[in-house]
Write a structure and sequence with these properties.
By secondary structure, the protein is mainly beta. The protein is built from 1 helix and 28 strands. The chain has 3 domains: 106 residues, Immunoglobulin-like (Sandwich), CATH 2.60.40.2550; 103 residues, Sandwich (Immunoglobulin-like); 91 residues, Immunoglobulin-like (Sandwich), CATH 2.60.40.10. It is rod-shaped, with a radius of gyration of 37 Å.
Length: 335
């Protein structure tokens, strides 16, 4: 028995040195971050991303094979799953954006090649909080530059989202906002994201008024939430497209000016003159009202000489403040 006891003790010690094959075995999982760089996942430590086009990588040094799938925040499979990968050979697949929230990667290890005999399943999670931001560079912008007929392309500061395949940008004058954040208007227009400037651009916004703009990111057929609505004002510049003197013979004269935009009907333009080409001491000739055609007409009296004529507008919600000068010469007929 003594000898047998030694043999038994030896056997027990030997048994204690045997380490199960799965004790140090690992499942390795990675996902692409906002910069598109693969980063390792750890159980119970979910990273936070904005990336809408996450790619995942899986490998294992235990079992014989593995499969993997990703569930979106809606609990539905997203992207392409790994049906049956081989131990030691990393596989990667794409995921689809299913909205913001928690995404779960489930990796199952198998003891056979057909992936029919599972031994365990490991889960990893990450959070996605995708979205864009938009803001005007100023609350009020011009529809065009003074003395130009070309419409300005308004540019907005914009924060894009990693992994987006496109953007939906909508704006409209006097729009209402629907419960889902979209705009409600019969005249909704599209804005465009310029990848070169990194700005959102509005092309063809010529009519003065108060506008609302919203935006959202798209990843194939899925979208982020709309941005909070942002309001901005477009106003016309104060300029004169034509000027004439319907009555150019004194001693009473008449001047008529047509503004570049017929948007400020009912407002008044102050017309003043100063003696000399470089005169600075102005006196007011009158404050004619702008008619529906964008015209002002004023009758005035001046003695002979050279004058500096000034047209000034205080500005309102549809037309910018501005001042225009010209030189006129009165002999008996204005020249």
């Amino acid at each position: 028995m003594k000898v047998g006891g030694k043999l038994l003790a030896t056997a027990v010690v030997a048994t204690g040195l045997v380490v199960p094959a799965t004790a140090n075995a690992t499942v390795l999982a990675k996902i692409t971050d906002d910069a598109g760089t693969p980063v390792a996942l750890a159980e119970g430590a979910p990273p936070s991303l904005r990336n809408m086009d996450v790619r995942y990588y899986v490998n294992t040094d235990e079992g014989v094979s593995f499969s993997a799938t990703v569930l979106g925040p809606d609990g539905l499979p997203t992207g392409v799953g790994i049906t049956c990968g081989s131990k030691g050979v990393e596989s990667n697949r794409s995921t689809d954006y299913h909205g913001n929230g928690v995404y779960t990667l489930q990796v199952t290890v198998y003891s056979d090649i057909p992936c029919a005999k599972p031994t365990r399943t490991v889960s990893y999670t990450w959070n996605v909080a995708a979205g864009v931001a938009i803001a005007p560079p100023a609350p009020t912008m011009l529809t065009r530059q003074p003395n130009s007929f070309s419409t300005i392309t308004q540019q907005f500061n914009f924060t894009p989202n990693p992994g987006a395949t496109g953007y939906e940008i909508k704006y409209a004058k006097g729009a209402a906002v629907n419960p889902d954040g979209s705009l409600n208007s019969p005249a909704i227009k599209d804005g465009f994201f310029n990848t070169t400037t990194g700005k959102v651009e509005l092309i063809g916004a010529r009519e003065p008024g108060t506008y609302t703009i919203v935006a959202r990111a798209r990843a194939f057929g899925n979208y982020t939430a709309w941005t909070p609505p942002v309001n901005f004002n477009l106003i016309a510049p104060f300029d004169i497209s034509s000027r004439s003197f319907p009555d150019s013979r004194g001693p009473s004269y008449q001047v008529r000016a047509t503004l570049g935009d017929a948007v400020a009907a009912g407002s008044r333009v102050t017309v003043a003159v100063a003696k000399g080409k470089k005169g600075k001491r102005f006196r007011t000739l009158g404050k004619p009202k702008i008619n529906s055609k964008g015209q002002i007409t004023l009758r005035f009296r001046l003695s002979r000489g050279t004058y500096r004529m000034r047209y000034s507008f205080k500005g309102n919600s549809v037309m910018a403040r501005g001042t225009i000068y010209e030189t006129i010469r009165i002999k008996r007929v204005i020249g």
